Model the fold of this input.
Amino acid sequence: MKLIIAIIQPGKLEAVKEALTRVEVYRLTVMDCQGFGRQKGQTGVYRGHEFSVNLLRKVQLQIAVNEPFVQPTIDAILEGGRSPGGEIGDGKIFVLPMDDCIRIRTGERGSEAI
Done:
C-alpha cells in the first residue's frame, strides 16, 4: 500500500480527477493549501504600490492505493496536472509507504480497507 500526495495547480483539479477516473481511482482527499518553490511567489501592484505574495494557492491530493494502482495513479496525475510543455509550478508527486489502513465503519484493515 502507498499514500500518494500530489500538489497541483487548482485549475488542473478537474482534469486530474477525470484522468484518475479513467484508471479506476475513485477515492481521494482534496485540500486547499499554499506554498512556493521555484515560482517564489508573485509580485503585484495595488494602488500604485508594489507588493509581493510569497505563498501561492495550490491543491493537495491524498490518494491511498494498493500496489497495482501506484503507477497508473502517478501517470493519471501527470496527464491531468501537467501544463502543455511543462512549466514551473505544475506541482509535485510524493509516494510514501503506508503501513496500515483501517476502515472505521467495518474495522477492515490493510488492502481491503482501501
Summary: The longest strand covers residues 56-65. Residues 102 and 108 are 6 Å apart (CA to CA).
